[in-house]
Amino acid sequence: MFKGNQTHVILLRLQASGTRIKISDRGDFIPGTSDRKVTITGTSEAIQAAEAMIMQRVTASQER
After folding, report:
1. Rounded CA gap, 52 and 30, in Å?
2. For the chain, how long is the longest CA-to-CA vector?
3. Do the Cβ atoms of 54 and 46 come closer than 8 Å?
């Protein structure tokens, strides 16, 4: 869904918000899907902000 540079920019923004982001390796999908696992750690406020930012980007990319 996110490609190359887009992913890098998103991760930098999320990390700047005080969260740590871990994305599963390529080919390591959530069972039964083609989706990679994303783990977000940080304060509850930072996690909520990161989730909102990610979902906003996912929605925008699906609308294209």
Report:
1. 21
2. 32
3. no
- Walk along the chain (64 residues) in steps of 10 and give the mean pLDDT of each run: 60 76 87 89 89 82 74
pTM confidence score: 0.62
Residue with tokens 């979902």: 55
Enumerate the domain spans of the chain.
Answer: 4-62
Pairwise CA distance, residues 42 & 47, whole Å: 6
**Integer Cα distance of 32 and 52 in angstroms:** 25
Fold of 4-62: Ribosomal Protein S8; Chain: A, domain 1 (3.30.1370)
